[in-house]
Specification:
seven-stranded mixed sheet, 28% helix
Length: 180
């Protein structure tokens, strides 16, 4: 099911494909609360910012074509320094490729890279309209830790937001290795 896929680091050259995948979700769904799809320049800026900040940004390529059919990244969960060992994960799969195991493979690789970089907790922030994302994260070891009632407004309705959490590596069982 996922043998014809390669998960690898994203590059600025992937910005157009990433922007195209994400635009569908911005315009057609409530998976994101953004309402204006980022253009090529903004997508490239986001890739660079995340990578330059020491977080993984990955793409999934369909082989042998090399077509980017999914992307995922992690970034600091909160802006304060105390969150430096916690990440929020983001995963998007091209709408015509849903159901092929791409999200699971991408999320697994993303979590591995986060652990390798010394991060200790991962959070997923998921709109109530995305039950498949809740299942995806639960399969990857995330557990529900809270609901933000009616936290988002999009497409004419209020939406709850679910927070899920997963320990990375030793989690809170030891002091962090990396200095920051």
């Amino acid at each position: 099911m996922t043998d014809d896929l390669t998960v690898c680091d994203a590059s600025i050259a992937d910005a157009a494909a990433i922007a195209e995948i994400y635009a569908h979700y911005v315009l057609e769904s409530t998976a994101t609360f953004e309402t204006d799809p980022p253009d090529l320049a903004e997508s490239a800026r986001r890739i660079k910012e995340i990578v330059d900040s020491g977080y993984p940004f990955l793409v999934v390529r369909e082989e042998p074509s090399g077509r980017v059919i999914g992307f995922g990244f992690a970034h600091r969960y909160g802006p304060r320094i105390g969150y430096r060992y916690s990440v929020e994960t983001t995963i998007y799969v091209a709408s015509d490729c849903i159901g092929r195991g791409i999200g699971g493979r991408l999320l697994g690789t993303l979590l591995e890279q986060c652990e390798e970089r010394g991060f200790r907790q991962a959070f997923a922030v998921i709109a109530e309209s995305e039950p498949a994302s809740v299942v995806l994260h639960a399969r990857a070891g995330f557990r529900p830790v809270g609901t933000l009632d009616r936290a988002g407004w999009k497409h004419g309705k209020w939406l709850d937001v679910f927070i899920m959490q997963r320990q990375l590596g030793e989690g809170d069982q030891s002091l962090p290795d990396r200095a920051a």
